[in-house]
């Protein structure tokens, strides 16, 4: 089984990159499932119903979120009824939505878990305990489980991967918008990449217009951030998993730059 995971989609530019590449990748690589982090997919922060439906039509099977889950208030109108949209499992239990899901495709089923890191991030419940809880539930239904650890600290993402080695198929980090080069298969069969990176404008600062970010750093005054313009990058990771036991056998980073407007 082949699974494609797309790094943080940022704004319309990131969605254009998905449109440009995902259908062809699925066809040419024989990809069975496609997961994408979409917490910045609508205007650079949050997601809307229209944007979620657009991503599904472009070939994304499951959308994971992160610390910008609630940035677009309209998500409250549809997150509960959308089983393909997964928000961090370690948010308070009374919030709407789900921290994991099972997606059934033509060639089997996969489980997807989303957790939020705590180092330099929001004060949420323990991501390690939350992941364990969701995995315990999912393993009754599926062998293949993909975890999106949306976190700032590389050490925290790496720690979760080692903690879950052999219990899940993959642990992929998101949030920093910078793709790391440490892809590996851990000893018990869990594929790991500290950060998948970003699918969005590559001529700004992590997807944001560079002038606004520079002014904030230099002046220390508040600035209005907007999605950058120019060339677009597509960051993702492709992993091969044995659906019989959930162990990963191959992991490949994908990084492309597209000249699209």
Structural write-up:
The protein is α/β, with parallel strands linked by helices. The protein is 23% helix and 28% strand. The chain contains 5 helices and 14 strands. Strands 1, 2, 3, 4, 5, 12, 13 and 14 form an 8-stranded mixed sheet that branches. A 6-stranded mixed sheet has the order 6-7-8-9-11-10, covered by helices on one side. Strand 6 and strand 7 form a beta hairpin.
Main attributes of the structure:
261 residues, alpha/beta, eight-stranded mixed sheet, six-stranded mixed sheet
- How much helicity do the residues have? 10-25%
The overall strand count is 14
What's the order of the H and E elements? EEHEHEEEEHEHEEEEHEE
Class by SSE composition: alpha/beta
What general outline do the C-alpha atoms trace?
globular
N/C terminus separation: 34 Å
How large is the radius of gyration? Answer: 17 Å
Question: Could you name the ranges where pLDDT drops below 50 across 5 or more consecutive residues?
Answer: none
Mean pLDDT: 96
The proportion of strand residues reads 25-35%
For the report, how would you describe the main beta sheet?
8 strands, mixed
